[in-house]
Design goal:
Largest sheet: 4 strands, antiparallel
Order of helices and strands: EHEEHEHH
Number of helices: 4
Distance between the termini: 48 Å
Radius of gyration: 16 Å
Strand content: 15-25%
Low-confidence stretches: 121-127
Shape: globular
Number of strands: 4
Strand order of the largest sheet: 2-3-1-4
Length: 138
């Protein structure tokens, strides 16, 4: 009988968080800047970003973590705090805020393509309605 001699963790997290009051504050320029910032933030934690995307009022993150000591609530709290600060300094002059709370779920690596397609949504109302129907967007 063979035993694993060490611990191996591979978690795929899908996170969604919104602007305060779902304000449509995130322009394409802001989203592009935010994506670059979040990718750097994720990579600095030792995780691997897979896709970061969003529309005017929310952001999707999909990333992989191999760290057994990773704390998702601390990660999201610090990410929202630092992106809030960056966005206010760069774009909003202190008038931007994220909504309290967030969605987080773990998925299998085989489902990452499904999440990639969800996070690549455009301003298309039909797609947003489909996401609402499937419980992926409020």
């Amino acid at each position: 009988m063979s035993y694993i001699s060490s611990t191996y963790t591979s978690l795929y997290f899908h996170i969604v968080f919104s602007t305060k009051n779902r304000s449509r504050a995130l322009s394409k320029e802001v989203i592009e800047h935010l994506k670059a910032y979040i990718i750097g933030y994720i990579n600095n934690t030792g995780a691997k970003s897979i896709i970061i995307n969003g529309i005017e009022d929310h952001i999707h993150l999909l990333f992989q973590v191999n760290n057994t000591h990773f704390n998702i609530s601390e990660f999201v709290r610090e990410l929202k705090k630092s992106t809030n600060k960056m966005l206010n300094q760069t774009f909003f002059n202190g008038k931007f805020a994220w909504q309290e709370g967030y969605f987080v779920g773990t998925i299998s690596r085989w489902d990452t393509d499904k999440i990639k397609s969800i996070s690549n949504i455009k301003k298309n109302t039909t797609k947003q309605c489909r996401l609402k129907k499937n419980g992926m967007l409020s």
